Amino acid sequence: MENIDLINSFSEFKDDKLIDRVTLMAILEDVFRNALKKKFGQDDNFDIIINPDKGDLEIWRNRNVVNDGEVEDENKEISLKDARKIEPDFEVGEDVSEEVKLYQLGRRAILALRQNLISKIHEHDSTNTFKYFQDLIGEIYTAEVHHVRHNVVILLDDDGNELIIPKEHQIPSDFYRKGDSIRGVIEKVELKGNKPIIILSRTTPKFLEKLFEQEIPEVFDGLITVKNAVRIPGEKAKVAVDTYDDRIDPVGACVGMKGSRIHGIVRELGNENIDVINYTNNPQLYIQRALSPAKIVNIKLNEEKKYAEVTLKPEEVSKAIGRGGHNIRLAGLLTGYNIEVFRDGIEEEDVELTEFTDEIEDWVIKEFGRIGLDTAKSILELDVSDLVRRTDLEEETVLNVVKILKQEFEE
Fold it and tell me: Alpha helix locations (H) across 249-370?
């Protein structure tokens, strides 16, 4: 293969990948110098002249003329006799520049050189892709479903870049079909070998925040700030918003008339139930708003331990806890407080669950307390199946607790 053929074929590859001229020349020179080192042992006495625009490549070897029979390094020295074959008037001590043709490197070297060129281009392309997507971490990105596997969905963007959505970053209700256009947030970018692994997430709270930016003009313009967002993907989310402009109702602006503004976000997130609340620096008021729609009787805070005891009317407890404990869990994540719910006005004949520590293990009592059940009657009022569903307890454990509590009242 002639020099010009190799450069031309590489230039076509360069045009496809949009590599700039300076980078192209640097890659070419690096590859050719590696080939020269393998052939001649060193490359510091070679000049490589490249003009990729015209497809020109010249390699010149520089050697010093020495007396016949005194050549010690054939790569850097040439005998007077051989020098005069190039130019008859050369003298000892002068420098000779001789062009090296590509075929002189040998067929194997040429094939290896070409493969090395392609490898360097792929490496350059992967590095650029990695840097490009690293700058996009935390931003919404759209790509098309290319392949659906059991634990991962593979996407391709308009430039042919591959992105993946692992199972843990998929909303449980998501259903993917080849050709579907999918939105998510660039969660992470890793290099595996020379290949960039780009992870798209639809479950991170950042995705919800960015959707607010895209769908609500006041958030995009900075008039309304999303202070915090927490999610149980596909189930429920809470978003705290604030504004410096007293004329704006941040919650109303985000929700819109009859939910018109937030409806698109809800639909994008698989009908995730989204509560939007006004942010405040007052922790008691913040917790009260976070536990909405429940009405709170009293709140006791331990700010040092980030602990809150919330007292509610018995009929409000289930609202504060929410289905599957989602409401209280998200309220805790949003405010940063560990929230425990207590019933107001416990009847005299009722007994607090902590009185049964001799018979019921402490972790079991805490698990019931986590969903707002802190008295014997609050547990006995519910079906065993409902208790199993709402807690992380086995049915056998729940049945044992119910048996102990019933015995207390029978006595």
Answer: 250-255, 260-268, 283-290, 314-321, 326-335, 362-370
